[in-house]
Amino acid sequence: MPVATRSVVLPVPLELFMTRSVLQAAVRAESDAERAASERAQLENAARQRDAEAAQTNHAVGQLGQALEEMANGNLEFRLSESFGSALDELRVNFNNSVDKLHSALKSIGGNAFSIDAGAREISGAANDLARRTEQQAASIEQTAAALDEISTTVNDSTKRAEEAGSLVAKTCENAERSG
FRET label pair with 105: which of 23, 83, 135, 156, CA 20 to 30 Å apart? Predict the structure, then answer.
């Protein structure tokens, strides 16, 4: 037995309406898919940009850490030569300028310390020379005082002998006048 198939014939306006609805739904679905793909791409792009900025920041922090460690070890010749990227490169330039100024200041202080040391050595030498000359003069004065003491003793002895001689002469003159 043959199966009868029925075909539904819709009026043309209804068929156009359904076709239009299907087409609009398809356009909407395609538009939604494009919007979702665009949003996904924007989110992925933003994530890549954040990752790149984070990597740049981590690199800059690592380089600054190494530079500060070099400074702490007394190396003022170390400079950050590798660029940090546009957003952070000013930090690198400022660090290098700061180290240059610190190096220059310490060099100047070292020069001044050398000059002060040389001046102090000169003053010390002059003070030692003055002390030596003072000791020599004190010894000379002591010798002069001893000589004057000796002269004074000699003069006193001579004065006593002269007085004794004067007394003897006076006695002798007296005895001579008495005798005759």
Answer: 83
